[in-house]
What we know:
Helices cover 37% and strands 22% of the residues. The chain has 7 helices and 12 strands. The strands form 4 sheets. It has a 5-stranded mixed β-sheet with strand order 1-2-3-5-4. Strands 6-7-8 form a 3-stranded antiparallel β-sheet. It has a two-stranded antiparallel ribbon with strand order 9-10. The chain has one domain. The protein is α+β, with helices and mostly antiparallel strands.
Amino acid sequence: MLKMWNNTDIRLEDIGRFELGASRQGWYLDREWKTGIHKSADLLKTALPYFDKYLDLGDQVGIKLCSIKARGTNGDWRRRINLARIDYKHDQTAIMETLAHELVHAEQTNQGRLTEHTWMGEKWAGAEQIPFGTTSFNKYWNFPWEVEARERSTDIASNVWCDLYQNLSCSLEQLHKATTPKWLAKNRDVYAGMFTNGDTEGAIDTTSVKQSGGIYHGAEGWTSND
Length: 226
C-alpha cells in the first residue's frame, strides 16, 4: 500500500481502525474555517466508532479533513491508500453524510466489489472497465458504486447521529438538524425509546439532554455550530 499521509499532514488521533488527520493548510492556516475544522475533528473523534456498526471495513482506514476543489465534490475515496478525504468547508451535518458516502466506497473496496481505480478507468464487481476520461460528471454520478453510496449514506449518517444523541454526545437541536421526521418515523421501531407519547413528529424525549445548541465537547460542554 502506498503512503497514506503527506509529510505536511497533521495526524490527529487513531480511533480503532480509523486514522484521523487533517491538512496543514486547513488545521493551521485557513482563518475562515479554522474553528470549523477543529469542531468537525472533535465530532469525528466521537462519531467514528459508531460507523463500524453499519459498515464492513478493512483493518485500516484513513480520514483526512482537507480542502477539495473539484466541482461538486465534498469528498473522495482513495482506494490505493485506503484514505477518505472530506472537505472541511461544510457544516457538520454535511461532513457526516459525506463521510458515510466515502466509507460505503471503503466497504465496497474491502469486499472486493470496487477493485480498481486508475487514470484509465474503474472496475465494478469484475465488470469491464468503464473509461474514466470519456464520461461526464453526471454519468459518473450514476455509476452503480455511486448510486449505492448515495442510497446508503443518509441512513448510515442518521443512525450515527442517533447513536451520538443516545450517548449524550450531541444535542437535540443537532439531531433535528441532521435527520428528518420522515427518516425518524421510518425507523421508529429501532429508536422507539427516543420518542414520547408514541409521536415521531418532533416529540423526542429530552429529559436526558441538559442543553442544546451544538456538539458536546467533553469538559468544554456544549458549543454552537454557528
